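Q: What would this chain look like folded?
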Amino acid sequence: MAGRLHIAPLDLPRLLPELVINEPLLTGANLAPRQGLSMIRLDAGRAHLRRAFWGLTPPWLKVLDHAPHCARAESLDERKMFTEAFAARRCLIPVSGIYVWRAMPRGKQPYLVTRADRGPLLLAGLWARYHTTLSAFYDSMALITVAAPSLLTPLTDRLPAVIGADQAAAWLDPATSLDKARAMLKPASRELLGAFPVSRRVNNPLNQEWACGHPTGPMLRSQPEQES
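A: My prediction, written as structure tokens:
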């Protein structure tokens, strides 16, 4: 799934020149659910960088611990909280990597999944707004996961869906048909992503040193085809 994120400083204006940055990007080496994240959502027709709680919290949710941090793309129509948000409140979460854990004989080995070129990733998400009073509210979000590309299935069976910068505006726009939005939720291409092992210190979410995301071995990535 996607239980931990790596978010380094990112050049978002270069990636999305029309983005309105209302507040600085929240960064961290080892970010877990139930924390604040930066999300990109549409506001008055323009993409804005806002803050949100990682755990989708619709107004009727009574127990905060039940707030899901991920939603499966295949079952977005099965739960009311996902169906409504998918139709009207899609968002993007800018990250530099996603932690996954590979089962090993002596415990699980963490890996950091990144773009093969180490560029930024835009992850598909849903957001909701919870009003505490008539004028006070907070926003929350969940990532949307899809099957992992074949290259990475030895590490994990699912990853957040990646939305290309050229598709960002269409993804965020509620006027985009649901069929078109669903078509964007697919496994990343084999060439887009890579993964490398990192320190097991990342297993403890209290460890927030940037060294958590440093490679401890070579990157697993697709090799270019050799010309015959």
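The chain has four helices and 13 strands.
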